[in-house]
Amino acid sequence: MCDFEEVELTDEEYGPDLVTVEDEDGVTHTFEKLDAIETEKGRFVALLPFYEDPTEMLQDDGELIILEVQEDGDGNMLVPIEDDDLFDEIADIFEERLSEYYEIDSQ
Predict the structure, then answer these.
(1) Rounded Cα distance, 74 and 107, in Å
(2) What's the pTM value of the predicted model, to 2 decimals?
(3) For residue 92, which of 71, 82, 100, 101 sits 20 to 30 Å off, Cα-Cα?
(4) For 16-41, what is the mean pLDDT?
C-alpha cells in the first residue's frame, strides 16, 4: 500500500496531472495520472511513471499502472487490485477510454 498526494496545477500551468507516491520503504515516485474512474466496485486510477528527463522516458516500457484508491484515516492510499477478474474488468474500461489518445498494446 502506498500513500499518495495529487499535485494540483493552477489555471496558468499546463502539463500532466501528477501524483506523488511514497512506497513502504519511504521512496517517493512520481506518476502521471492518465485517467480515474469510479464504479460500484470502487475508485481506480491509471498511471504512467513520470520523468523530468525525456531520455529516461524512452527507457521505460510504457506499462500502464492500474491501482485502486482506498480511503483510510489519513487520506487516500493506492493499492494493487488483488482480484484478477476485477483487474481485467477495470483494465478493459481504461483501455477503451484511453485508446482514443494512446496506442495500447493488449497482452
Answers:
(1) 36
(2) 0.74
(3) 71
(4) 88
The whole-number pLDDT of residue 106 equals: 59
pLDDT surpassing 80 at residue 46: yes
The DSSP secondary structure of the chain, one letter per residue, reads -EEEEEE---TT--S--EEEEE-TTS-EEEEEEEEEEEETTEEEEEEEE--SSHHHHHHS----EEEEEEEETTEEEEE----HHHHHHHHHHHHHHHTTTS-----
Which pLDDT does position 63 carry in this prediction?
79
In DSSP terms, 30 is beta-bridged to 20
C-alpha cell read off for 61:
516500457
Residue where the block lists cell 493552477: 10
Please tell me the total number of residues recorded for the chain in this structure: 107
